[in-house]
Amino acid sequence: MTESPAPPHAGDDEALRERALTALLAARDRTTLLTDSVDDHDLTAQHSPLMSPLVWDLAHIGNQEELWLLRGVAGREAMRPEIDGLYDAFEHPRATRPSLPLLAPGEARAYASEVRGRALDVLESAPLGEGPALVRSGFAFGMIAQHEQQHDETMLITHQLRSGPAALTAPEPPRAPDAPTLPAEVLVPGGPFTMGTSAEPWALDNERPAHQRDVPGFVIDTAPVTCGAYRAFIEDGGYGERRWWAPEGWAMVREHGLDAPLFWHRDAGQWLRRRFGVTEPVPDDEPVLHVSWYEADAYARWAGRRLPTEAEWEKAARHDPASGRSRRYPWGDADPTPERANLGQRHLRPAPAGAYPAGRAPCGAGQLIGDVWEWTASDFLPYPGFAPFPYREYSEVFFGPEHKVLRGGSFAVDTVACRGTFRNWDLPVRRQIFSGFRTARDL
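The chain above was modelled as a monomer; its predicted structure follows.
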């Protein structure tokens, strides 16, 4: 059992340089869209205590790029050492960041732009193929591109939380013409497979190293659970039945009076939702979005099923029984394309369940990459042989039962920050994130 080899451009300085440049420019284009589409008041306002002001994210992106590429890779002097503490995510919780003496929108834009110009100069001359681990295969540049895209996703969450008219637009995702003929679930046979990666050059520390897992056979949903299916749970009194809920989840439901996913409300007998400033009917055929782990777990219990473990999810997404290899993606080793997955904020919603037939895994399950982050049953824990890199605070400080793993990415995730091995994690109460789920059952 092996994993797919590294991308063909790994080890080639010029190809790596081009890959890093493309990723950095794409991230900055998206950051610019997210910050230029609103006025300075919206940039500096805190739209939810769960999120930073958009202007904090903008300057933090620049500060991290300076720390890792200018100071770390190039060894240059700090440009603005006095702001390091302001943009340290571990020093200041999100709820308190509006009270800090943050850079004003114009200053934040100028700072991030100046850092980027200098970083591109570093990229032109940095040796990428070999050398220290931080620069080998262009890792530092890939890490920064992923970091910016991850903050772009959090800024998109802030856009969803803000009140007022829509600031963003996007075309509708493709339909799912063969959805009516798809089976509801598919079999994943038991046996070993390779989980994680040691070959992907820009994989982050919690994805490493590749290791063998023996997973008993199981059955998993062909697509994420839809709004229509979840509505059946609501209408069957799911939020009022304690027996479906973990104790902490039931306490959350009672404390906050929850009766539906975040952003849903009922009006004149119809379920509506607010999506990026627009109120619309809840679409039955679309994967349900903005549910916590507790809600996903309760639905699965109600349906007589369960959430898949992280290992089950990854085996369904990556394992190719014909070759015995674990692929980079469900469809193979090639990078994502618009025909294979809903990624990169190309659409501002998940595609209907059953879309993207070109992106299905060998087991037959689809939409494992993109559309919605999928809650799993697993706690966020290190793999055997884990080593923190390049700093403990990226993953290690979050390991433990407090955080649950999400896999697969959402429509808000860029291709640079989404792989078959990519691991996300969050508290089980979180609902503002672009989270959904699929269910599984034992044989």
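Residues 13-36 form the longest helix (24 residues).
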